[in-house]
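stage 2 :: seqdesign
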């Protein structure tokens, strides 16, 4: 059980790191801006 939890934790941290990397990309930022602009219409 303990080992299983640690593996899921490793997985989660890996995914969060990936998410953070994605957030830093300019592509994602522009995408967000587009979304906001569409919402304001």
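stage 2 :: out
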């Amino acid at each position: 059980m303990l080992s299983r939890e640690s593996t899921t934790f490793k997985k989660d941290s890996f995914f969060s790191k990936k998410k953070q990397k994605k957030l830093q990309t300019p592509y994602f930022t522009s995408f967000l801006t587009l979304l906001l602009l569409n919402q304001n219409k």
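stage 3 :: structure notes
- The mean pLDDT is 73.
- Helices lie at 2-24, 26-40.
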